[in-house]
């Protein structure tokens, strides 16, 4: 494919990933504040400003390179600093809540974008036809759907340093959680890398697709209820 022909699509997906990663990290910061820790807020991380969250390699270089080369896109933002000593109560539960807030924010964005696309198809497609000035916003919403679904599913993998590890440690008995953190956590990066190289994460896209289909089903039935009423 011609480089200049694919550039608009690549930039659209890059913008979707940039916003989604920033929203993910801001959700961590906001949930930490709710639990009593204002460390991230004091450091300017309770914001959607991409300059506060962007990691040059993980947020800019690798995503753009992957998109332009039409390869699977890997990306991350700077982790939000959290001081668990500031949690007002239930530190293990608060830690899991702060961790799960990121993926949950991506699931919510995905659902909202599916709803927006459904509304567009039902009511606004005539106002914003393909090729019009505002039509790229439709493409951006489509990219947001898939980027957020994949980000959410990937981050829910129960391997450190991903958010799912904190959730798993919450549901495990304390002794098993301590053993998991001591034995598995140091190898988390290497396990993830091995899964990526061997194709062991192919199920992530399949599960993300299932969630997008579920969002479509929810929105479709909600729209029918509203129109019927």
Helical content, roughly?
over 70%
Low-confidence stretches: none
Estimate nothing, just give the exact number of structural domains: 1
Strand percentage lies at under 5%
- What is the succession of H and E elements? HHHHHHHHHH
What is the count of β-strands? 0
Mean pLDDT: 88
Q: By helix and strand content, what is the structural category? A: mainly alpha
Described by strand count, sense and barrel closure, the largest sheet is: none
From the N-terminal CA to the C-terminal CA, the straight-line distance is 48 Å
Q: What's the Cα radius of gyration?
A: 19 Å
How would the global form be characterised? globular
Question: Total number of helical segments?
Answer: 10
Annotate the secondary structure layout.
Blueprint lengths: L2 H32 L4 H4 L7 H4 L2 H13 L22 H34 L11 H20 L8 H8 L2 H10 L4 H11 L3 H27 L1
């Amino acid at each position: 494919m011609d480089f200049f022909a694919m550039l608009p699509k690549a930039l659209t997906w890059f913008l979707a990933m940039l916003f989604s990663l920033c929203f993910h990290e801001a959700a961590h910061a906001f949930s930490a504040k709710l639990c009593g820790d204002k460390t991230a807020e004091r450091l300017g991380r309770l914001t959607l400003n991409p300059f506060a969250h962007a990691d040059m390699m993980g947020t800019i270089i690798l995503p753009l390179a992957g998109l332009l080369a039409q390869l699977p896109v890997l990306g991350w933002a700077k982790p939000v600093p959290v001081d668990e000593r500031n949690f007002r109560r239930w530190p293990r539960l608060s830690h899991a809540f702060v961790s799960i807030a990121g993926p949950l924010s991506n699931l919510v964005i995905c659902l909202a974008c599916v709803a927006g696309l459904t509304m567009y198809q039902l009511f606004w497609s005539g106002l914003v036809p393909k090729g019009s000035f505002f039509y790229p916003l439709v493409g951006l919403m489509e990219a947001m759907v898939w980027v957020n679904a994949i980000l959410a599913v990937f981050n829910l993998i129960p391997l450190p340093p991903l958010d799912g590890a904190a959730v798993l440690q919450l549901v495990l008995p304390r002794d098993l959680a301590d053993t998991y953190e001591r034995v598995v956590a140091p190898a988390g990066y290497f396990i993830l890398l091995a899964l990526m190289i061997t194709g062991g994460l192919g199920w992530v896209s399949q599960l993300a697709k299932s969630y997008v289909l579920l969002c479509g089903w929810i929105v479709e039935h909600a729209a029918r209820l509203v129109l019927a009423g």
